[in-house]
Amino acid sequence: MIRRAICLFVVGAVSLGLTARSSAQDKLDKEAVLKKAIEASGGAEAVKKYPAAREKTKGTIEINELEVAFTSESVYLNPDKMKTIVNVEFMGQKVKMVQVVNGDKMRMVANGMEMPVDEANKGELKESLILHQIGQLTPLLEDKAFEVTLLPEKAKVADSEAYVVLIKAKGLKDTKIYIDTKTYLVTKMEKRGLNTEQKEGNQEYFLSDYKKVDGVMMPMKSKVLHDGAKFMESTTTELKLLDKVEKSEFDISD
Fold it and tell me: In which domain of life is the source organism classified (predicted)?
């Protein structure tokens, strides 16, 4: 169970701020806020050019109150394909986990051993794919599958003020994204999710250290809290945005 949970969470991986009511001159509608956020990310043309990416990360995750280091390599292709390889060493045991999602088909293997994926974890995997789409922002304006609401109150993320956008979609637990009122970059995402003990709680993904990659601003660091407690930190060490990926990479057969 621990192996499965580590892989599921790393795939899906980013304190609730105090809110303050916005003044009249600060009010913008959701379309205006999202358009500014897309422009800050590099513009719709640049963002939509890359439906896929290949990434390497390193970081730590909390397992049974222990901080465990991991490395991962992943590739995804929106809207429904993803492959992730995670390497960890836990209590003297090295574990290599490979996880593939190809539409409704999913597979997970740990040290060569097939791991079952139950319905709850299938839901988490599907949500992680939807989060990739949300991260691009453009689908929030163009895809009617997303119900988007700009909440009337702003929030504090670290020392900065942020617009709060609530997103609803089929197969996705209600998700909030926080858009900085000055930079218009997404600094936080928030939703319900599972931890390594398979317990559901409130998860806050803090995104930082933005760098321009292939013309698109991308966060290089993330920190995750689960019910307010530190859960995971990660740093992207390599990232390449792609306009296509061979579908054979997501083959789930032996």
Answer: Bacteria
